[in-house]
Amino acid sequence: MADLPPSVVASLYNLGPQGDVPAHQVAFYCFNYGDLAAVSFASGLPWLALYQALRLPGHRNKSRALLEAVTCVRGI
To answer: Engineering a disulfide at 24: which of 53, 54, 56, 71 sits with its beta carbon 3.0 to 4.6 angstroms away?
Structure first.
């Protein structure tokens, strides 16, 4: 958590400041609850994190569409 940008940490609103967070969970929270900076950060995560984030339930419709657009552009 300490290595993440402040906008990403803010999107992980229900987690404490310590500990490890899986990359796919970071992507999920950034796309669902983050601002533009958090979404930009999540868009640059490794392909596997984005692929796994797509398979998580609970996406908001617009957030899922944005994640699908990012994975399409990146060829995932």
So the answer is: 53
What does residue 16 show for φ and ψ, rounded to 5 degrees? -75, 170
**Nearest to residue 34, comparing CAs of 56, 67, 3?**
67
Please give the chain's pLDDT, 76 residues, in tens: 778 999 999 999 877 777 788 999 999 999 999 999 999 999 999 999 999 999 999 999 999 999 999 999 999 8
- Give the Cα separation of 1 and 75 in Å (integer): 28
Kind plus residue range of the DSSP H or E element containing 62: helix 61-74
Report pTM: 0.90
